[in-house]
Write a structure and sequence with these properties.
By secondary structure, this protein is mainly β. It contains no helices and 11 strands.
Length: 119
């Protein structure tokens, strides 16, 4: 399965961006999906996750109230709406998907998209 992110870019503090992740391949087995981010020298951190049905979400405290994760299972896509962006949101954002087939769990990652927030 492949994951491709899009929508990153440069934005001023207080602005908004919308990231998208498109899944292809064995999408029927996708369970949980999520967004993670990473800055140089730091470990990758969770931003938000969403369950298979799209009715349960989880957010990092640092983005609660500003970011919204959603998914469209019919289109095999997942989005992250980011509002009120701060310079500390600057990072490479990665799409993540977990599949479960015959009780075997696999984790997939996209190639990442850069988000830069200027002050």
């Amino acid at each position: 399965m492949q994951l491709v992110e899009s929508g990153g870019g440069l934005v001023q503090a207080g602005g908004s961006l919308r990231l998208s992740c498109a899944a292809s391949g064995s999408t029927f087995s996708i369970n949980r999906m999520g967004w993670y981010r990473q800055t140089p020298g730091k470990p990758r951190e969770l931003v938000a996750t969403i369950n298979s049905g799209g009715d349960s979400t989880n957010y990092a405290d640092s983005v609660k109230g500003r970011f919204t994760i959603s998914r469209d299972n019919a289109k095999n896509t997942m989005d992250l709406q980011m509002n009120s962006l701060k310079p500390e949101d600057t990072a490479v954002y990665y799409c993540n998907a977990v599949t479960v087939v015959l009780l075997q769990r696999k984790v997939y990652w996209g190639q990442g998209t850069q988000v830069t927030v200027s002050s």
